[in-house]
Write a structure and sequence with these properties.
This protein is mainly alpha-helical and 305 residues long. The protein contains 14 helices and no strands. It is globular, with a radius of gyration of 32 Å.
Length: 305
Amino acid sequence: MSTLTPVTPQSSPSGPMAPNTGQRRRGKTRMDPTRNITAAGIAAWLLALLFATPVLWMILTSFHSETDAATNPPSVAANLTLDAYKEFFGASSGVSPWPPLINSATASILSTVLVLVLAIPAAYALSIKPVKKWTDVMFFFLSTKMMPVVAAILPLYLFAKTTGALDNIWFLILMYTSMNLPIAVWMMRSFLAEVPEEMLEAAQIDGAGLLLTLRRIVAPVAMPGIAATALICFIFSWNELLLARVLTGVVAGTAPVFLTGFVSSQGLFLAKVCAAAVVISLPVLFAGFAAQDKLVQGLSLGAVK
């Protein structure tokens, strides 16, 4: 008598040798990272070109004559000339731009030096040697920038007129220092907080005083932050117009005030204003390119813990 053994169904093999069952499996589509990087690069270049277009247009307009610069729509293929730059340097009027440029450089550089001299010890006390309720102190510094300058311009004008400080470059330096000091303290505090405490403790054990510690230990480590703070204070001082317009005149007038003198209610002035803006912007551009690596390193300092 024969016995029948039940046949168990065998499972189909899996893996690369599995037969085609006719069923299609839907896989996930992976995005090409190279394509994403290329698209982001193109978008960045387009955005940079969008922001740079007004500057490039100003430079192009400065090389046009007043008649070509005032056409509507503007003439891109017009003849190039240096008449606007000659007018800026006083070829026909005889008014030299060098005194206002020197006044701007003097006020910007000296006020930046004073800001650093005052901001570094203050930031050292608020970061490395923290005081009680240092956050309240920092917000007090920042709150002084929340009041618009136009709200304080009348008391400043009356004070300068009473004390005989009108049209005085030293009073303008004092105003620029007080204007940039809160921002400098706020920035330097975050930079100095990155200084390793072990270095300060070693300097203290070796008997170094406060000034020696600031000069030999803190300053070299925080140099990128100091350079970034100095450049920002210099740019703010160089571009400031309202205080210089109200508190100065012929003697202490700055470059932005001199630039506004080309704007008149009669005649054409667009090419001259563009030429003046290009020349006045060159010191800021040169300073930015010279301290470019320090600026990027300083502004990114403390961003990643």
